[in-house]
Amino acid sequence: MEYITGILLILSFVGLAVYCVKGYNLMIGFLVMSAIWTILPLVGNHFVTTPAFIAVNAKLINTPIVASIKAIFQTAPENWGTTLVNVFWGAWFGRVLIETNIASTLIRKTVELGGDKPLFTITLLNIVVAVIFTSMTGAGPVIAIGVIVLPILLSLGIPKAIALFSFMGAVASGIYLNPVNFAQYQAFYQDANGKVAYQFSDYVFWGVLALVIMLVITTISTGFALKIKKPSRAWAAQTERPSDSKNAPAIALITPVLPVIGVIFLKLPVIFGFVISGFFALLICGKMKGFNNTARLVNKMFCDGVIDTAPLVGFLLTLPMFNKAAEYASPYFQTIVGGVVPKSALAICIVFAVFAVFGLFRGPMTLVGSGAATLGVIKNFFPVTLLYPLFAIPTITMNIGSCITQSWVAWGLAYTKVEGKDFLRLSIPNGIITSVILCTLAYFMFGINL
Q1: Per residue in 379-436, pLDDT tens?
Q2: E strand or H helix at 2, and its extent?
Q3: For residues 260 and 267, what is the distance between their CA atoms, to the nearest angstrom?
Q4: Dihedral sign, CA of 357, 361, 364, 365?
Q5: Is the predicted pLDDT of residue 81 greater than 70, yes or no?
Q6: At what angle do helices 81-99 and 102-114 cross, to 10 degrees?
Q7: Torsion angles phi and psi, residue 315, rounded to 5
Q8: Residue 170 · residue 412 · CB < 8 Å
Q9: Given this model, what pLDDT does residue 337 score?
Q10: Rounded CA gap, 305 and 303, in Å?
Q11: How far is it, in rounded angstroms, from Cα 312 to Cα 368?
Q12: Of 120, 167, 130, 158, nearest in space to 237 by CA
């Protein structure tokens, strides 16, 4: 019976992969998978007869059905509250950077410094965009920055596909060091009590290296693409800022990096970093004009930030259900594929380097797709210190920065009138090279002594 249950679970895994590739709603997909991965193990537990399987999984088999359902559909989402709070406060901080004109001022100053040298300007803009997105996240902020950056690049004569590829690659680079995204992916590694031993401080050094590596490779790839297809002035964008927009004070331009600096060097809590940095920006930029006005402004920014992240929230609230259900399903997966999953750190790093491309189209290597099921299958074989960086690579490099199913990439394609195939011709090779280098780095940093 354990083999029959395991095979059915694997078939459901394949079904989820197909579902994600077709671009269907992830919230519904993971809710359905949570139900399937609850029902199949609970049914299987009542029919297994193999003594060795029963002995190893006695606690799971003897858990009452109602207790199992409560653990999956009630307790697991409740334990995810910490992550949700981090996401919302990070989204609020992103709105502060937009409403105070800090983000737009950084971009305008960068363009003034770059002058009329396209590659130099792109390099500077990539750095600034990456820095901005170490704090900002979500489709709303990406679009808000994109409508500033992309017209500038296009007005410099940068071909549309190259401009979009460069911008999206810079956004993804910054995500590697974004505390909000870290908290989002951290939720995949919760234990039975909703706790995760792996913290941002454990990850941050590798995150800095990953940011720099992806940013450098993206910029080099952009340079090579420009060598092949020279800049032209065929598309002149309107880059003037609105008449009511003004530059933020110079001192306020350090705001995007303050939360990250607070976490890394001062060991401040992430939420406190967002709050104190946000109010610093509001004060310096003259937005705190009386208690009532300030309260209304802060409330509006928080509401806008929640709207920015709303498409993710439903998915993320079904995620802990799926994670918990995967615990009940894992013994059956181990029965079927336990002898196939690589057991050495070197082997698993090679697998991720070779198959990182399957992070595209919500495939089995990205955590914001069917990769959550992949993690459920293999997470008992390796420590989170290795698995977190490995899964972050296809999730961020291939999905967030390279895939046309990503919401803000889809927006960028429509905004710039770029064909998906033209974007993928640039993003896929860049993503593969970056992934191979980062998987190699992950092995030498976290896997070589396992």
Answers
A1: 778 888 899 999 999 989 988 888 877 777 877 887 788 888 888 889 899 999 999 9
A2: helix 2-21
A3: 10
A4: positive
A5: no
A6: 60
A7: -60, -45
A8: no
A9: 67
A10: 5
A11: 10
A12: 158
% of the chain exceeding 70 in pLDDT: 88
What are phi and psi for residue 268, nearest 5 degrees?
A: -75, 150
| Predicted TM-score of the model (pTM) | 0.75
Q: CA triplet 18, 178, 148: central angle to 5 degrees? A: 90
Q: What phi and psi, each to the nearest 5 degrees, are found at residue 211? A: -60, -50
Amino acid in the structure at residue 32: V
Q: What is the C-alpha to C-alpha distance for residues 99 and 77, in angstroms, rounded to an integer?
A: 32
b/e code 54-73 from CB counts within 10 Å (16+ = b): eeebeebbeeeeeebeebbb
DSSP for residue 396: I
Distance, CA of 315 to CA of 330 (rounded, Å) = 22
**Alpha-carbon distances of 450 from 345, 347, 379, 387, rounded to whole Å:** 7, 12, 15, 12
Please give the average per-residue pLDDT across 313-322, as a whole number. Answer: 75
Angle at 150 between CA 147 and CA 156, to 5 degrees: 135
> Are the beta carbons of 146 and 411 closer than 8 angstroms?
yes
Q: Report the pLDDT value the prediction gives residue 57, as an integer from 0 to 100.
A: 74
Question: Could you tell me where the DSSP H helices lie in 266-290?
Answer: 270-284
Contact 187, 407 (CB under 8 A): no
Q: Are 368 and 329 in contact (CB under 8 A)?
A: no
| Tokens of residue 13, six digits | 């895994």
DSSP string, 110-161: HHHHHTT-HHHHHHHHHHHHHHHTTT--SHHHHHHHHHHHHHHHHHTT--HH
Show the tokens assigned to 418.
């770029």
Q: pLDDT grade, residue 212 (50/70/90)?
A: very high
User: Among 386, 381, 375, 394, which residue's Cα sits nearest to residue 447?
Assistant: 386
How many residues does the structure list for the chain? 450
Look up tokens 């806008």; give the residue: 304
